[in-house]
Write a structure and sequence with these properties.
Elements (H helix, E strand, L loop, with lengths): L1 H32 L2 H34 L17
Helix pairs in contact: 1-2
Length: about 90
């Protein structure tokens, strides 16, 4: 359970930092230079940050559901048609 929180915190901080960098690049490209290349790079960086965050949250949620639904494997002896063990 503790590893889920550490993964979620790591994804949160990485996503936020990449999102901030993307917003800065987008703002510089759109408002300062008027360069369409920097604007596109900024938009792509923002989309990448959102993608990284969503995949991290999905990973944590999937891991949590697997931990809660794990029931183990039950091993039984095989029997023949008449009930005698094989």
């Amino acid at each position: 359970m503790e590893s889920n929180f550490t993964i979620l915190n790591a994804v949160k901080y990485v996503g936020a930092s990449i999102l901030t960098i993307g917003m800065i690049i987008f703002s510089l490209g759109f408002f300062a230079n008027g360069s369409s290349a920097m604007t596109g790079i900024g938009i792509g960086t923002i989309m990448g940050a959102v993608f990284i965050f969503l995949m991290g949250v999905f990973f944590v949620a999937t891991e949590e559901m697997l931990e809660k639904s794990f029931k183990g494997i039950e091993v039984t002896k095989m029997k023949s048609k008449n009930g005698a063990p094989l």
